[in-house]
Amino acid sequence: MLLQMGEKLHIVFNEDGYTYGNCVLIDDDIRVVIDSGAGRELAKVQPENVDILINTHHHYDHVRDNKLFTRAQVLLHPVECISIKSIEKVMAIEGWKELMHEDLYGQEPQTKAVEDPYSINEEWRVDGEINDGQVIDCGSTKFVVLHTPGHSKGHCAFYFPDEDLAFLGDICLTKVGPWYGEAHTDPGELIASIDRIIELNPAAVVTSHVNRVFTNPRPALSEYRDRILKREQRILKQLRESPQTIDQLAAKRLIYREHPYLPVLFWEKSMLRNHLERLVKLGLAEEVEEGVFKAV
Prior knowledge:
By secondary structure, this protein is α/β, with parallel strands linked by helices. It has helices at 60-63, 78-83, 87-90, 96-99, 187-200, 218-241, 246-251, 262-281; strands at residues 2-4, 9-12, 23-27, 31-34, 52-54, 73-76, 128-129, 135-137, 142-147, 156-160, 165-167, 204-206, 214-215, 285-289, 292-295. The chain folds into two domains: 2-225, Ribonuclease Z/Hydroxyacylglutathione hydrolase-like (Metallo-beta-lactamase, Chain A, 4-Layer Sandwich), CATH 3.60.15.10; 234-295, no CATH class. The longest helix is centred in the last third of the chain and has 24 residues, at 218-241.
């Protein structure tokens, strides 16, 4: 579905579900699209006639159809320009061998939840960079790049001042979020990024994975941010009761209520690892022996 939000600004809501994502079309003097994961709906933006493609970050559901933008200049944040060269990062499975006991691609297809990265024979082209505070001028439409790390280190959101609208990418406001499973990512960075959007106080926001416009989004953003802190308190409660490993904490499902697929368990462990690294830095936990943590 194509939803018009301004004279030249449209939101492309994907209709294909998981592993796809919403996109933005600025149909101005310079035609710009943000992200390429809208699946069948992407045809409505005419990718072959787009001048600039910007990716919010490097994950597969945001870059999966970059190849359709044959004449567009492809732009990402400098950190993402590096990350997109790693298929493990693109598929959000970097660090699998360190945290998991099972081989993901020895599983039955219905248990995988993500596509086999080694079946994707694609190199993502990058032509240039975007940076925090940069203004993209499309003609009558202008928007601002906001570096919002946490979901990934180079993740960006975008603010359209004339419409007082922000496209938040994977500050996604879904029921199962937030996700901050990139290796050695500080959850505090995502908290700060969400606080930045709250302080910006746009009249409306759109995200990559909810097919609606959030008006007066402050309450939704605050509740979403506070989930990170609640998860952290659950972790600390467990560590006060006894020293524990990441495997032991993951078995208690402190982040996800269910682990229907192996990648979900992996992402739980990844986020637990990042929480533990943050808690150690804050002096709230310590590693008493290799891989075993307790509260301080």
